[in-house]
Automatic annotation (TrEMBL), chains A, B:
Boundaries of every HTH hxlR-type domain copy: 9-112
Protein name as catalogued: Transcriptional regulator, HxlR family
MF term (GO), any: DNA binding
Any Pfam family: HxlR
Statement: the UniProt record of this protein carries the keyword Transcription regulation: yes
DNA sequence: GTAACTACTTACCACTTTGTAACTGGTTAC
DNA sequence: GTAACCAGTTACAAAGTGGTAAGTAGTTAC
C-alpha cells in the first residue's frame, strides 16, 4: 500500500500520456480554457481572441468535437454564425485547466522576479 | 469583479500558454510525473521506464534542468552514474501533474465503457 | 587487449505540427 | 453588381518533434 494522498499506480506516466493524447498540441487547452472559463464563442471570436489562424482552429475544433469536449451549433442569423461551447465532459478538465492557469500565473511572477 | 472561485483574469489563455511553453512536448510531463511521484532516477532507468530514447531524453532533461524543474547529480560509482531528481520548484507542478493523472485514469475508464 | 556497462552525443531521416496566404460559398447592404 | 461579413478550406512552405543507429568517453572485469 502506498500513501493514498499520492496517486496510487505503478505507471503513473501512462495516464499522463492518455491525457496528453487528448489535449495535445499548442492550442487545445487554450481553446478549452476559453470555452470552459468564459463561455460560448463563435468561430471568428475564438480565432481573434486566441490568435489561432482559421486553418488550425478549424482542425482543433474538429478534434475536440470528436472527443466530445466541445459542441457545435449553427445559428440562423443573417450571415450564418456557428457557436462553440464546452460540453459537460469538458467540465471534468476544469481541474487540469485551473491548475495550469494558476501555475502559469505563478511562474510568470517567478520569472519576472529573477 | 468576478466570481472568485474562478480564475480572475482577462486572458486566462495566456497563462495556459506560459505553462505549456515550459512543459511542452510529449515527454516533459511524463518525466516529471516519474521524478515527482516516484523519486530520483538514473538516466538509463528513466529511459527504460518511460520508453524515451536516449537522444530525446537527453534533450528533455537539459530543458527541464534549464527551467529549474530537475537537478542532476553525478555519482562516483564504479561506472559513473547520474541521478536526476525533481526540484522544490517542480513540486509546484504537482497540482497539474496530479490533475492530469486523475483525468487520464477517468478518461480511460470512460473510453473502455463505450 | 577485449568486452561490457554507464551516460550521453551526433548524424541522418521521417513524420507531425504550425503558419501564411489565398480562395470558396453563402448572405446582406448599398 | 460590388463590397463586406461569416465560417471555413486548400495549397504550400517552414519549423518542430521524434526515431534509429552508431559513435564517444570513461571505468571495470576477464
Amino acid at each position: 500500500m502506498k500513501d493514498n494522498l499520492d496517486v496510487e499506480c505503478e505507471n503513473v506516466h501512462s495516464f499522463i500520456q492518455d491525457t496528453l493524447y487528448v489535449v495535445n498540441g499548442k492550442w487545445k487547452l487554450v481553446i478549452l480554457s476559453i470555452l470552459v472559463n468564459k463561455g460560448t464563442r463563435r468561430f471568428g471570436e475564438l480565432s481573434r481572441e486566441s490568435g489561432i489562424s482559421p486553418r488550425i482552429l478549424s482542425r482543433e475544433l474538429h478534434e475536440l468535437e470528436m472527443n466530445q469536449l466541445i459542441s457545435r451549433r449553427v445559428c440562423n442569423t443573417k450571415p450564418v454564425t456557428v457557436e462553440y461551447s464546452s460540453t459537460e465532459y469538458a467540465e471534468t478538465l476544469k481541474e487540469v485547466i485551473g491548475a495550469m492557469i494558476r501555475w502559469g500565473q505563478n511562474h510568470r511572477k517567478k520569472i519576472k522576479g529573477q
